[in-house]
Amino acid sequence: MPNKGFKHSAETRAKMSKASKLMWQDLDYREIVIKTRVGSKRSNETKAKMSAWQKGKKKKPLTEEHKKNIGKALEGRVMYEEHKAKMSAASNGSNSSQWLSGISHSPYSPKFNKQLRVKIRERDNHTCQLCGVEKNVISKGEILMAVHHIDYDKTNCSEDNLITLCTSCNFKANGNREMWQQYFECKLLVA
Ligand SMILES: [Zn+2]
Predict the structure, then answer these.
(1) CB burial class (10 A; 0-12, 13-18, 19+) of residue 180?
(2) What is the DSSP secondary-structure string of the chain?
(3) 171 CA distance to ligand 1 middle (Å)
(4) Beta strand pairing status for 137-138 and 162-165?
(5) How far is ligand 1, taken at its centre, from the CA of residue 78, in Å?
(6) How far is the CA of 172 from the centre of ligand 1 (A)?
């Protein structure tokens, strides 16, 4: 357990770090610091400039342009986070190796037999419940409609967890899982 003193100093350090990062965003300040670091002969002058800069900053609020730039930077970061979340969601879908290996490593329940699949297809009129096609055509040949597990649990074979989809829609439904699960659950409630 860290004592109070330790906590305080960590907080202070965080504040100082945050403040210095903000200051670093100011190009004038950055220029001055770089000049100081390379050991300019006019170090006294530089120090005076820094001191003047800091005094000036206290009085001068951020310019609109500067505020906009900071806003843009923050927005960029939010978008980046959203993008990361989307990428991670996508990687849980059909293109991920996890999903591909999922076929071989998590076998369907024995309850998910031909008889049950026929029953579900009949209930759904042999029609894809997403796009409405009645014939599931794959490279010129007609194949049976897929019976999709709405909650993605291959062992949950209750009829309200199963829905008829064409191959294309079944593939689609393996990405963005949370959204599709909600969609199909609602669809069956309405039906
Ligand atoms: Zn379809």
Answers:
(1) buried
(2) ---HHHHHHHHHHHHHHHHHHHHHT-HHHHHHHHHHHTT-TTHHHHHHHHHHHHHHHHHSPPPHHHHHHHHHHHHHHHHHHHHHHHHHHHHTTTTSHHHHHHHHHSPPPTTS-HHHHHHHHHHTTT--TTT--SS-EETTEE-PPEEEETTS-TT---GGGEEEE-HHHHHHTTSSHHHHHHHHHHHHHH-
(3) 9
(4) unpaired
(5) 34
(6) 9
* Partners of 162 in beta bridges: 149
State the Cα–Cα distance between residues 117 and 16, nearest whole angstrom.
Answer: 64
What is the CA(185)–ligand 1 centre distance, in A?
16
Q: How far apart are CA 159 and CA 123, in angstroms?
A: 10
Residue 151 in this model has a pLDDT that exceeds 70:
yes
How many Å lie between the centroid of ligand 1 and the Cα of residue 39?
69
Q: Are 106 and 149 in contact (CB under 8 A)?
A: no
Please list the residues that pair with 56 across neighbouring strands. Answer: none
> Average model confidence (pLDDT) for the chain?
76
The structural domains of the chain, with segments of one domain joined by +, span 106-190
Q: Ligand 1 centre and the CA of 89: distance in Å? A: 22
pLDDT in tens, 56-73: 655 556 677 777 776 666
